[in-house]
Write a structure and sequence with these properties.
The protein has about 250 residues and is an alpha+beta fold. Helix content is about 35%, strand content about 15%. It has helices at about 50-55, 85-100, 115-125, 155-170, 180-200, 220-230, 235-245; strands at about 5-10, 15, 20, 30, 60-65, 80, 105-110, 135-140, 150-155, 155. The strands form 3 sheets. Strands 1-4-7-9-8-5 form a 6-stranded mixed beta sheet, with helices on both faces.
Length: about 250
């Protein structure tokens, strides 16, 4: 089985406006070795200059309000509250989806709910209690200008792995101006992520996901867009790339 080398490090977390130093005792942060790929023009917005992108995107915070992994999950799995035991699974899934090693410019933190809520409040200025605890992940997208940070609420292995895949889909490129296209971009990557986990039996989750859930009639324009593209015979990663390149939009 493939195993990607990795290093666990302790870092400072940064909010949008001012540096925020957080005690690291209960936080596991994931990065890869130096041989991973660098941001390329393929993942940049082709319609904007680099200076304009840096001004707009270097401190962009994405808070995941709309993504619900539960319809995609078919059965229970063990509880996880730390990224370190998942490093091999994350790196393996990422390489198999993208053909590249896990990038140096992406950190992943999985932590218990209380710590997650504290980080969310300090980094976004908002409290998750007001959102009924529905936030399972959020990210700071610094694609091309720094290290993007992903924060994931502890939960079942299937839920955490799927939320990680969805958030990676957000930070793989600078955020799109069209918010529905931005969500569709993450959904498309999520489907590719799930398919890869199932095909390669990653973390023994091959029987835990459904890539075409009905979502019980929930109105989700972004996912409906991706689902229709898949019905037309498109590959999910191809849909992701088209959205990043802005050759299609929701």
């Amino acid at each position: 089985m493939y195993q990607q080398p990795y290093t666990t490090v302790e870092t400072l977390l940064y909010s949008v406006a001012t540096p925020y130093q957080e005690t690291q005792q209960n936080i596991s942060t994931l990065i890869s070795q130096p041989h991973s790929f660098s941001p390329s023009s393929f993942y940049q917005n082709p319609h904007e200059k680099k200076e304009s992108q840096e001004k707009k995107y270097s401190s962009h915070v994405h808070v995941e309000y709309h993504f619900d992994p539960l319809p995609f999950i078919t059965q229970p799995s063990r509880f996880v509250d730390d990224a370190e035991p998942l490093q091999h699974y994350i790196c393996s899934a990422f390489e198999k989806v993208t053909g590249h090693a896990f990038p140096q410019d992406m950190n992943i933190t999985v932590c218990p709910s209380q710590k997650f809520d504290e980080l969310h409040h300090n980094l976004t200025g908002k409290r998750t209690e007001a959102m009924l605890g529905s936030i399972l992940g959020f990210s700071l997208n610094r694609r091309g200008f720094g290290i993007s940070e992903l924060f994931i609420r502890a939960g079942s292995l299937a839920q955490v792995m799927l939320t990680i895949g969805h958030e990676i889909g957000h930070v793989m490129s600078p955020p799109l101006i069209n918010q529905r296209s931005e969500e569709a971009k993450a959904y498309a990557f999520s489907i590719a992520w799930i398919q890869t986990i199932r095909e390669h039996h990653i973390a023994q989750l091959q029987d835990h996901f459904d890539v075409q859930p009905a979502l019980n009639g929930v109105h989700n324009v972004a996912f409906a867009f991706v689902k229709n593209k898949l019905k037309e015979g498109n590959d999910p990663l191809g849909v992701f790339h088209s959205l990043v390149q802005q050759t299609c939009e929701v």
